[in-house]
Amino acid sequence: MATFLYRIGRWAFRRRRLVGGLWLGALVLAVVGAAVAPTGEEEDLSMPGTESQKAFDLLDERFPQSNSQGAEARLVFRAPDGQRVTARENRAAVEDTLGSLDGGDQVASTTDPYETGAVSEDGTIAYSTVTYTAEAVDLIGPTKSALEDAASQARAAGLTVEIGGSALDAEEELGGTTELIGVAVAAVVLVLALGSLVAAGLSLLTAFVGVAIAFGLVSALAVPLGLTSTVAILALMLGLAVGIDYALFITSRFRDERARGSEPEEAAGRAVGTAGSAVVFAGATVFIALVGLGVVGIPELTKMGMGGAGAVALAVLVALTLVPALFGFFGRRVLSRAVRKAAGAPRRGAGNCATSHDEPSGDRRPIAAKPAKRIGTRWARFVLRRPAAVLMTSVLGLGAIALPALSLELGLPGDESKSVETTQRRAYDLLSEGFGPGFNGPLTVVVDMPESAGARATTDQVVTTLRGVDGIASVGDPVLNQAKDTAVLTAVPKTAPNSGETKDLVHAIRGAVSDVEADTGAAVLVTGTTAMNIDISEAMSDALIPYLAVVIGLAVLLLTVVFRSVLVPVKAALGFLLSVGAAFGVLVAVFQWGWAAGLLGIEQTGPVMSLMPILIIGIVFGLAMDYEVFLLTRMREAYVHGASPGEAIVSGFRHSGRVVAAAAIIMISVFAGFVGMSSPTIQTMGVGLAAAVAFDAFVVRMAIVPAILALLGHRAWWLPRILNRVLPNVDIEGEKLSRHVPAPATDPDAAVRRLPVGRHQH
Asked: Coiled-coil intervals in this record (predicted)?
């Protein structure tokens, strides 16, 4: 693979104008496609195979007219202190408010709370439901303005008015302050790590190209594939993070090759052949882990995985082709100012050497720089002196951070998780106060009856059974379809939607109706948003361990092939578990317990989003393999060429430690930049991924990995002979490339590379 990628790198460098033109054309097409494509709709989560989803599907079939309605708004009115909403002047204000909406653009109907009984027992709170002819994303500005103006009209009359429902929902918008801060931090880290504005700009430019194309494709395919804004944001988040990192790794290797004396085209080929091989493998692990999310069986999770995987694949292609092409355009300016100055000073009088101004597309003079002492080398030697202490401290520290994960509770956020500054959250609180905490999460009971059964007798028996279940506040009258073979009832719990009592209630109802099913032959199904959330959360909990086992197994298999070792993959898998466990501990501490929630702008604690554990496992698995590969490839490269285990560790940190640290800081900054968004899903994702990357890069890969390798010594790189014969050699370190393409004479590691491979080679 290294030799093939070496040829790609040299070809992209030579044909840089063609490569740049092709990527520019792809970018233009993606942007145009996104601009002309219709806006996708935000779909509710579904879980095929669950009881709640079966009931939803049955409702779609038996009550097709119920799906013809569009968005819905709920106007919640509260009378001034000491008054009732049923008082004459307050009732007149409510009726005037609703009258101003009747017949408005896109308004299908409004309900009168005094006729429908939508008034609280104490008479202080009432609500009206406004239905529209279009979905929330299709509501025009004047329609939403009319709704808000109507609320303002009632407020002017002295009432407290809040608006709930889906009518005011909007897609999450990008470009907020925190995202920009994250990108700015990434830019600063790039400049400090590379010592060149041009090199830093190159990494950012290529990452933005890949992200823009991915975001454009997701937007263009939103309607035909049913992709939501969350899919687009995940693609943006992942594409930006890995795109910058992959470009950084290849750029850093290009600069190393130039420092060893390689000409620009040769250095580009070597950079893509070596660091590019690691990029391909790392990208492949992220891609496989994200695509593997489809096995869970949740369509939304599958779409998120596919969107993120596509963004990662684009980032890999950009890194392998556009990055070396830009090396050709920028030439010596990719190198740091100090290196350019040191290398250029003694050559200024040379008449046959073009300056960087004469040949901006690539000065062909070899650059040789004296390697400087780096903090990575000093850290590696520190770990080698105290491996047991470093290992114990790191493991105990991550274990302590992971302890809160034992209290992990899963759920799906609703209006109760929104900021108290939003009208939706205040409407939720008013309805809970006036009609009970369970009013915001009613259960829908669907009765599928045989044609021969008596509909009235069956539904009466279901109603009686439901009213006898402890925890039910009220049961509505059944509604039959035209064929009289399906009935729908609404049961309101006494407890809040995300409470454990409501979860127990759903199971209690499903158990209680089994006698009705046996007596009548009817199928009684419990559904609704609350029941669906419970079913999805339980499905996620059940799938977590199997998915984790698949991911760990895949990690061990892939790393065994790459590093041709048994213990290195096992060590990597255990480290991955530690970093993921610690990340889950942070999620529980922040989102369930409220620790530091105020600092992050999180106002409401509650269960962790159901999709997050599996999604974070899939993403972090791939990212953890990034750092494992980039750090250990240099170690194994030195080891197989005769270096001792300790020298190999130092060599890996000398070449890759600083770059891996910079890449991790960049990725943490990008993920943390999304914490400021208002979507609970994106907030949870940002906190979880930022924490996981921090733990994995700086504790697991920088401390635990070298400590274990130091303790294992030569045993770390042991591989049974039978596996050595069976496993393919993917040559991720570029070993074959070193044989076919001799190292430059000025390469400081050339002597080591020319050593005959001895007893360390497996």
From this structure: none
